[in-house]
Write a structure and sequence with these properties.
Structural class: alpha/beta
Strand content: 15-25%
Number of strands: 38
Helix content: 25-40%
Radius of gyration: 32 Å
Number of helices: 28
Length: 888
């Protein structure tokens, strides 16, 4: 667990073999702390025996351990006193107090207690034990305090309120920032494996630290040299004798774990392991990596790497370059994280050339501990960073990443280029939904779309959009006007804008009239505004001024093709002057010249981005505008089911898991959907053909008849569905055929499902696959008649808000058919489909045992949406993370 100062402890259940460690712990705690815990001085042997007396249900004890060898630094316990209540107590070593350990232990105890039916915790605290009283008050749990003659009696529930969850998330944020700061703003750095010679990794890292003029203390550790690049050489970090915040490890892989042990004994807070030969290098490397992680956890150290390039912070008060990259990046406003070391070197080389300066750079390598999530939160707080950029090969803890990016993106854009758009190794699924989701990169796209992340397809595109969002305001909308002195480039830019989803609207008659006052008669005043090759710098200046004053544009692309009569430097100066007058409209340029963009585009207060080609500018503007639209749309609201029966759903799922899990029967699937009020077509569950005939009278013919068979997927293919049955004879015949077909397919018939036929509406598929990394992935798309024609699917990560549901449907190519009306077809109840999506989201969020769900079809009609067929697969869910603030 990460504490609020960024250090770590290992929290686990107490064990019988902890007797010696508990003895040392109790002997080392101050008299005051012992007195607060036991209301006096206890008998040591009795206290040890009592601490170890646990059954992990009614009597539970937790310890926090750290160091090498591990030492107990905190102990917490609860003792059940009746069916629903338990008494709790805490003791923390004096040196570890006020770091948040008690709050973490309380959260874990509460989770265990809640699992065992304990709903209330009780505690007695001495009136002058102000620290413990403060722990309870700030815990996030609603606390009731009562004064007793010699103590304060405290009562609190074992489940958190929404406000409490937010407090735990804030603790998590503080701890993450502290961890990242240990790497990006250390006060002292030791290079273990520092070399006297340039040209190798240990030599280059030490040289870069000194060349960057690091504002802290640098130590060189080399077992064989007394002097290393003019610094005293230490044989071991244990010889330094002064605190070391960051240890940079550049030794052979087999020596890293012993070095980490030494760092733990020296009290190092952060370990940056450059060395390769770990998880990326086969089974032996994976074992070595696990040993390294265990040493860091036991020693309370945070770890970046192994197998990484290093870290950089260009802030003048830090000036840290702990990498072996050959160049120092130019200072700037972009924080960059790369999962790949070699990719990081390319980034550093390219950043300055592409006009993007870095505030800090991190290469996380195998990212076995600290990931991009911690550095995102650091950049959120860093006044020197305006934009966070990430190169990802995989997303660590995607749900947490989405939560962080959604919060951070409201004030600082998060830009990502992620490899792996191809479907290598698609997840094995058997439902329609699973197959359609696993066949593409749509899950990652959905995550980024919901979280407001700007996803670029290439490195060049990533830097293009970074240049735009760091130098210009985020557009308020998606209206783009193109101003050019060459018709061809203007048309290319307009085409690229529209291909990337932003509008290039025609100008109004009033606006054209104002431009006609000074532009030549042959100028084209639609959009693009083609001022002709003779356009002067003043024409650019006046045209941009008219557009800005009209307040009808969110972004402007000004294109300059060098003619014979106008100098590019004059045009650049005119554009920059206009840019200096607005902080609401994004302004960028395309200078199609051999000499590149003129220096006149920059001044002390403003820098106008310049591109070489119109398509590059259009793509960057489109991505920035899309992000502006996301910011403007708001947060949205998650549907809270007020009439749901989750306890009934839990009982149904539990019964199915007791039978081995898997695909449930249609009748069970229907029962689950009914628990959340999801709209089902009129349905009856019957035992035989005779009952089906009776039910058909109630429903009205024609009807559909289906097998109610557990484990059967693909009822149509096995002949387990019969449609449009008009009368009793047809129903009886169909029932016999269904029984025969099901038996032939190797399943046991278990009754029938009979439903009223839907005679109008449009078919959709709504489904969910529980991804092991992303959690429930909700999908919708057109139904059977269009599925083969349109490769059309919309995906979101749950929980889905009302805005997510709305955007899911409107992103479908087939949405005009669903909406009807202006598209020429009948209107359908789109709002009902949105409610259904939110209902499914609520159900699968509440029950992680639902591994796969397929509602196929859902029929949208003019007055609602109806689920016609449902398939549900359940499996035992993995254990939940202990608290939102404690996910690793």
């Amino acid at each position: 667990m990460v504490l609020r100062d960024g250090t770590t402890v290992h929290v686990r259940a107490i064990r019988a073999e902890d007797e010696a460690a508990i003895r040392r712990f109790l002997q080392g705690v101050s008299t005051d702390s012992i007195g607060f815990r036991f209301f006096g001085a206890p008998n040591l042997e009795q206290a040890i025996k009592w601490s170890l007396d646990v059954d992990y249900a009614d009597r539970v004890g937790l310890v926090a351990v750290t160091g090498d060898p591990p030492a107990v630094v905190a102990h917490a316990t609860y003792l059940r006193i009746n069916e629903h209540k338990a008494e709790i107590a805490f003791l923390v070593a004096d040196a570890w107090q006020e770091r948040g350990i008690s709050t973490i232990l309380l959260a874990h105890l509460a989770e265990v207690a809640d699992r065992h039916g304990i709903s209330t915790f009780l505690a007695e605290v001495l009136p002058h034990n102000h620290r413990m009283i403060g722990v309870f008050r700030a815990s996030g749990f609603p606390v009731d305090m009562r004064a007793a003659p010699d103590a304060i009696e405290i009562e609190l529930p074992t489940s958190l309120t929404e406000q409490g969850l937010k407090r735990f998330q804030e603790r998590d944020r503080i701890a993450a920032v502290a961890a990242a700061r240990s790497f990006l703003a250390p006060r002292s750095v030791a290079v273990i494996g520092a070399s006297r010679q340039r040209g190798n990794v240990g030599g280059e890292i030490l040289h870069n630290l000194l060349a960057a003029q690091f504002q802290g203390v640098v130590y060189a550790v080399n077992r064989n040299a007394e002097v290393v690049q003019s610094l005293p050489g230490y044989r071991s970090i244990l010889e330094i004798g002064s605190p070391v915040d960051l240890a940079v490890v550049v030794v052979p892989a087999e020596s890293v774990v012993p070095v980490a042990h030494e760092c733990a004994r020296a009290g190092v807070r952060a370990l940056l392991v450059i060395s390769a030969g770990f998880g990326e290098a086969g089974e032996e490397g994976a074992r070595r990596q696990q040993q390294l992680v265990e040493v860091c956890r036991e020693g309370g150290m945070r770890l970046v790497g192994p197998n990484c390039l290093g870290v950089i912070n260009t802030a003048p008060e830090v000036r840290l370059n702990a990498t072996f990259a050959p160049r120092q990046p130019a200072p700037g406003r972009v924080g960059f994280m790369s999962q790949s070391g070699s990719f990081g070197i390319a980034i550093i080389e390219a950043a300055e050339r592409l006009g993007v300066g870095l505030s800090s750079f991190v290469s996380v390598g195998n990212k076995v501990d600290v990931t991009g999530n911690e550095f995102l939160q650091y950049w959120e707080d860093d006044p020197g960073t305006d934009v966070a950029m990430l190169y990802l090969e995989s997303v660590a803890n995607p749900r947490k990443f989405a939560r962080l990016a959604r919060r951070i993106g409201r004030t600082k854009p998060v830009l990502v280029v992620k490899s792996g758009r191809s479907a290598a190794g698609a997840r094995a699924t058997t439902s329609h939904t699973g197959a359609r989701i696993s066949a593409s990169d749509v899950t990652v796209d959905a995550l980024f779309e919901q979280a407001g992340v700007i996803r670029a397809d290439t490195l060049h595109e990533l830097f293009d959009v970074a240049a735009v969002v760091t130098k210009q305001p985020i557009p308020r909308g998606e209206r783009v006007v193109i101003v050019t002195n060459g018709g061809g480039p203007g048309i290319m830019c307009a085409d690229a804008c529209q291909a990337n989803g932003v509008a290039v609207p025609p100008l109004s008659a009033d606006l054209k009239a104002k431009l006609e006052e000074f532009l030549p008669a042959e100028a084209s005043l639609g959009n693009p505004v083609d001022m002709m090759a003779t356009a002067s710098a003043d024409d650019y200046r006046r045209t941009l001024r008219v557009l800005l004053d009209a307040d009808v544009v969110d972004a402007i692309v000004a294109i300059f093709v060098p003619p014979l009569v106008t100098r590019g430097t004059d045009v650049a100066g005119a554009i920059r002057e206009i840019a200096e007058t607005t902080d609401e409209v994004l302004l960028c340029t395309v200078f199609m010249t051999s000499s590149g963009p003129p220096a006149e585009l920059c001044s002390d207060g403003v820098e106008v981005p310049a591109f070489e080609f119109p398509e590059d500018a259009a793509r960057a503007v489109a991505l920035a505008a899309r992000h502006g639209r996301w910011r403007a749309r708001g947060e949205g609201a998650v549907w809270q089911p007020t009439h749901a029966r989750p306890e009934r759903a839990v009982a149904i799922i539990s019964d199915e898991l007791g039978r081995g899990g898997g695909w449930v029967s249609p009748a069970t699937a229907i029962a689950l959907l009914e628990c959340y009020g999801l709209p089902l077509i009129d349905t009856r569950i019957v035992a035989n053909a005779e009952e089906a005939v009776t039910a058909a009278v109630e429903l009205g013919t024609p009807v559909a008849l289906k097998a109610n068979t557990r484990g059967l997927v693909g009822k149509n293919a096995t002949g387990a569905v019969k449609l449009d049955l008009p009368d009793a004879r047809a129903i009886t015949t169909a029932a016999a055929e269904i029984d025969a077909n099901v038996s032939r397919a190797g399943y046991r018939p278990d009754g029938l499902i009979i439903q009223r036929m839907v005679t109008s509406g449009i078919e959709l598929i709504v489904g969910m696959v529980h991804d092991p990394s992303f959690g429930p992935v909700l999908a919708c798309g057109p139904g059977a008649k269009l599925t083969g024609v349109m490769k059309d699917i919309a995906v979101r990560i749950t929980p889905v808000t009302d805005l997510d549901a709305r955007e899911m449907l409107r992103s479908l190519q087939s949405f005009p058919i669903l909406e009807g009306g202006d598209a020429g077809g009948p209107n359908h109840d789109v709002a009902a489909v949105e409610r259904l999506l939110m209902g499914v989201s609520a159900m699968v969020e509440a029950h992680p045992e639902i591994a796969e769900l397929d509602l196929n079809p859902v029929v949208a009609t003019a007055r609602g949406a109806l689920i016609v067929d449902a398939q549900v697969r359940v499996e035992a869910a993995p254990p939940p993370l202990p608290m939102p603030s404690l996910d690793a």
